[in-house]
Amino acid sequence: MYSVEEIRANYKGFSNSKIENIARNESKGLRKEILGILKEEIENRNLDKRLITWVDAETNTLTDFEKQTLIRKIENLNCPNCGQKRSKLSGQEFNTIVSVILWCNDITQNRILCYYCGRNKKFKSYLITGFAGWWSRRGILLTPYTLVKDTINIFFQKKINDRIIAEFIEQNNGMFRLHGTDDENLFNMISWHNNDYEIQETEEELENE
């Protein structure tokens, strides 16, 4: 492990863009003494002072009580998909496979939805995979595995929900500290999360790993 002085010397050698990237995306995992070095570099280089505000927000971790309160608030929001409050919101996982000859697109989406929107989206994903997942070398192996996995996941929905909600809270800790957790802000953040958070793997990417 590097000493604090060695790390300070390394940070002095980093470019401004590197320091900004660490502040925006990596500060949450840094030790307290390293955070001090990071903020010193931001100040010494006259970088945007809002970076320090963001670092402080990201590293001010929500307490367990705050997390539990936040989970209850999320559950009782209107659904960001249908806009209604027909059931409690929950974290749900959707797996979809589309493949053609040598191309296979494997998408995992983590969404926070009401039961009814989740059920409809699950059925759609299951249908697409069942019809369009088989038509490549990888797809013919991955499709039955995914269909069975999705069926089994029905019995583990609480575990999946807990994981997805915990990930959402962890990823947005800084945003909660800066902008609060009122219903409107939470609704907007979940809507953004639902539109942008997905994991895609293509056969070409897997072959390049």
Molecular structure report:
The chain folds into two domains: 4-59, no CATH class; 65-208, no CATH class. 63% of the residues lie in helices and 13% in strands. The protein has eleven helices and three strands. The protein has a three-stranded antiparallel β-sheet with strand order 1-2-3. Helix 1 runs parallel beside helix 3 (32-44), helix 2 crosses helix 3 and helix 4 crosses helix 9.
What is the number of E strands? Answer: 3
State the domain count: 2
Q: What is the straight-line distance between the termini?
A: 28 Å
Largest sheet: 3 strands, antiparallel
The ordered string of helix (H) and strand (E) elements is HHHHHEEHHHHHEH
Q: In which range does the helix fraction lie? A: 55-70%
Strand order, largest beta sheet: 1-2-3
Q: Identify the overall geometry.
A: globular
Number of helices in the DSSP assignment? 11
| Nearest-integer average pLDDT | 91
Poorly predicted parts: 197-209
> Pairing-aware structural class of the strands and helices?
alpha+beta
Percent in strands: 5-15%
